[in-house]
Design a protein that fits this description.
183 residues; 6 helices; 8 strands; PH-domain like
């Protein structure tokens, strides 16, 4: 079957696969609810709401995904984010992460992940596998997927070229600590 579908169409369908699942779940919920009754209507509504939430999450992931045009590969494995670039790279443990920034450097937007011990790695937004960072960053305490997608939008009052050239540097997430407790 794959021989009959053009590669660019196959890639587009693969990119939208989670959205299609959400639409199918909503359709199944509406179909169940259409039969009526005390059991099928609530079940169909619950199923439909689940499909809507799946579709919303898929839409956010698609907005977060990049084209993979930057050098390097991103790996996310059991709470550890790794970036292997042509000249630099490193690993950061998500439980040890204290700050997540979005910066621009030399015309490229980068994630800056900083650990408690001061080590930091820079990961280009367009690196291969960077779409896996969405789930990893969403698991950080206090970080929502909506906030994460909103962070990728250009700064208000500046067009995207100005953000790229102007050296964007904003904190997306910072771990809240216990602080100093006076007794």
């Amino acid at each position: 079957m794959t021989d009959y579908v053009r590669p660019e169409v196959r890639a587009l369908l693969w990119q939208w696969r989670e959205g299609f699942v959400g639409v199918a779940v909503v359709a199944l919920g509406l179909w169940l609810a259409s039969y009526g009754g005390y059991l099928l209507v609530p079940l169909g509504v619950i199923l439909g709401l689940g499909g809507v939430s799946l579709g919303l999450l898929a839409w956010r992931r698609m907005r977060f995904a990049a084209d993979g045009a930057a050098p390097g590969i991103v790996q996310v494995d059991e709470g550890q984010v790794g970036y292997m670039g042509p000249t630099v790279g490193g690993f950061v443990s998500l439980p040890d992460l204290v700050e997540l920034r979005l910066i621009s450097m030399r015309g490229r937007r980068l994630w800056r992940l900083k650990q408690a011990d001061g080590q930091a790695i820079l990961i280009p937004l367009e690196a291969a596998g960077a779409e896996n960072l969405f789930d990893a960053f969403s698991s950080l305490p206090g970080m929502s997927s909506a906030d994460l997608v909103a962070a990728l939008q250009p700064v208000a009052g500046a067009d995207s070229r100005a953000v790229m050239a102007g050296g964007e540097n904003r904190v997306v997430w910072r771990r809240s600590g216990a602080g100093v407790v006076a007794r």
